[in-house]
Automatic annotation (TrEMBL):
The lineage of its organism: Bacteria, Bacillati, Actinomycetota, Actinomycetes, Pseudonocardiales. It comes from Pseudonocardia ammonioxydans. The chain crosses the membrane at residues 12-31, 64-82, 91-111, 131-150, 159-179, 191-210. InterPro entries: PAP2/HPO (IPR000326), PAP2/HPO_sf (IPR036938). The keyword Ligase does not apply. Keywords: Membrane, Transmembrane, Transmembrane helix. It comes from the Bacteria. Residues 91-202 form the Phosphatidic acid phosphatase type 2/haloperoxidase domain. This is Undecaprenyl-diphosphatase. The keyword Repeat does not apply.
């Protein structure tokens, strides 16, 4: 790992704000039903074209990438960073998924959007749909991890980590739609919300670190 230079919190705060505004817009559009017809067409089309082998793989991946799995990513990543002497970064990586879990759960309860019909679902899920918890948590955990590690990694490691994170987050969101347990708009809103909360958390980390260095 390389030694990182001090990080400017302002661009991060701006990016976080933009992502959270996008999440709010996507949630509003999904909640008001503007995309309901498109959501239904996509869900019905996928249900009609499912391939048994792909469905098995999707079920396995969606379980690995569930909300608990994303929380574990944050807690383990945070613990490793803290153990290596990067306590503030470790706390950030660990706390972001925990805060995100509270946020998306509260939103689900408030919005109370129904899941896709049971006849489109591979596995029966009946609780609130918007935003997708899997998509939100995956985006939050992996965005936080990439951003925190980014200044400390060489170029090749950055590319590998970022590529894996993007593919993993995209895959988990896609499995939720493929398995018929979420609308496409649930997943899009979840990705934006999770990424926005992660960037906000890293912005707070950068601001706190800058203040500590200024005092020290």
């Amino acid at each position: 790992m390389t030694c990182p230079a001090p990080r400017d919190a302002r661009p991060l705060a701006g990016a976080a704000g933009a992502l959270l505004v996008l999440a709010a817009v996507l949630i509003t559009i999904a909640y008001t039903g503007v995309l309901q017809q498109g959501d239904l067409v996509a869900a019905a089309g996928l249900a009609a074209d499912r391939i048994p082998g792909v469905t098995v793989v999707a079920r396995v991946l969606t379980e690995i990438g569930n909300t608990v799995g994303s929380t574990v990513v944050g807690l383990v990543g945070g613990a490793v960073l803290a153990r290596r002497g990067h306590r503030a970064e470790g706390i950030c990586v660990a706390v972001v998924p925990l805060v995100t879990s509270v946020v998306f759960t509260v939103l689900k309860r408030i919005l109370n959007r129904a899941r896709p019909p049971e006849d489109l679902q591979v596995m029966a899920v009946a609780n609130e749909s918007l935003p997708s918890g899997h998509a939100t948590m995956a985006a939050a955990a992996w965005t936080a991890l990439v951003l925190v590690l980014w200044p400390r990694l060489a170029a090749r490691a950055r590319t590998l980590l970022t590529t894996f994170a993007v593919l993993w987050v995209a895959t988990i969101g896609a499995t939720r739609v493929y398995l018929g347990v979420h609308w496409v708009s649930d997943v899009l809103a979840g990705w934006a919300l999770g990424a926005g909360l992660a960037v906000a958390g890293v912005a707070v980390l950068a601001a706190t670190t800058a203040r500590a260095r200024a005092r020290g």
